[in-house]
Amino acid sequence: MSNFIQNFFKSPEESVIGIDVGTSSIKVVQLRKKKGRAVLETYGELSLGPYAGLALGQVTNLPADKIAEAIKDVLRESNVTSNSAGVSIPFKSSLVSLIELPPVDPKQLQEMIPLEARKYIPVPISEVTMDWWVVPTEFDHDLDFAQGVDDENNEIKPESRKVQVLVVSIHNDVLSTYSTIVKASALNTSFFEIEMFSSTRALLSGETAPVMIFDLGASSTKIYILERGVVKYSHIINRGSQEITVSISKGLNVPFDRAEHIKRNLGSGSPAEEKDVFEIISLTLDFIFSEANTVTLNYQRKFNKAISKVILTGGGVAMKGVFELARANFQTEVVMGDPFNKVESPAFLEDVLKVTGLEFSTALGLALRKLQELN
Ligand SMILES: Nc1ncnc2c1ncn2[C@@H]1O[C@H](COP(=O)(O)OP(=O)(O)OP(=O)(O)O)[C@@H](O)[C@H]1O
Ligand SMILES: [Mg+2]
Predict the structure, then answer these.
(1) What pTM was computed for the model?
(2) Total domains, the chain
(3) Residues spanned by the domain of 114
(4) Residue 143 has what pLDDT?
(5) CA distance 358 to 306
(6) Alpha carbon of 360 to those of 43, 119, 195, 242, 271: distances in Å?
(7) Can you tell me which atom of ligand 1 is nearest the CA of 358?
(8) pLDDT tens across 298-323, in order?
(9) Does residue 132 belong to any structural domain of this protein?
(10) In CATH, what number is assigned to the domain containing residue 166?
């Protein structure tokens, strides 16, 4: 169906939602377009722990029907009025690779991509759904092969310059689970998107130099490095903010929910007590940051470029001390992500959104894409 016909039948004032099913909580954001601007209508979050008989903040692995139940609950509790949705797929359920191919004609390229991509996919190709995007060369005019010189400054002949292709694959079982979830939640979903692409849409604003997005979630820490908005490198660290709660729980010998409370309220207790807690959690944080450093080094070695800025996101970075640690660790500009900055919102919410925004990058990015679909 052409865009014109789609527009003809759609109200330009339609509200849309983005839904991010994290391992510890679901986030939803509802937007509407008004005079060409994205306007925040409502947003909300619901912890998944209680749906699995676990504490708030605890990581879950729920079956589709329980997730659908939680989605219906968060939509109701957040006063969402639209069911027109974009839904994210966890980065860990996907495989993203940037591959290089010779500069053949477009038709030949389309045939080569799936054949080449096979090498990167560890399961039979029939078990995954693949999508790809040929990175336009203007994005890469600062890369050696596009400039026409190699590492030793020798000229590269046009016929041996490479084309970069971003290949994304998702296991069919994952897609079928998500289809079941959206059906059971009565959502009208036009796309699933890997969380990496949603959160970067919400967090980046036209940066050209390499930027790192550091998403400290409950179960894992996701790292994406982008140049001119294109993902050049990505990595998942299998430790997240829940690990910090677990270490407080063990170190102080208190239940998980008490440890979660202590973690979320750091900064309000006595300095002596808090020094102990920081000592307990430093092992976990050191592990995450040293892995992040390895990722940075690997990227720099591969692309010979430095990271100009690190954008922090995910609920875990709301913990007191994480920002300072990140600043000391990365030795480059470090900022807190502020996705609600991209949308119009009531003035009285601005301060709240600066803090809550940390958890909503993915949901917001999904809603922004959904809004773009209405154009
Ligand atoms: N104010 C706060 N202070 C400290 N930690 C917090 C705060 N708010 C949330 N967190 C922590 O952030 C984590 C939740 O973050 P987020 O919602 O980004 O995770 P998620 O998306 O559910 O997880 P994942 O991305 O790993 O699937 C939890 O571990 C929670 O304890
Ligand atoms: Mg998350």
Answers:
(1) 0.91
(2) 1
(3) 94-170
(4) 46
(5) 25
(6) 9, 35, 11, 18, 31
(7) 18
(8) 999 999 999 999 999 999 999 999 99
(9) yes
(10) 3.30.1490.300
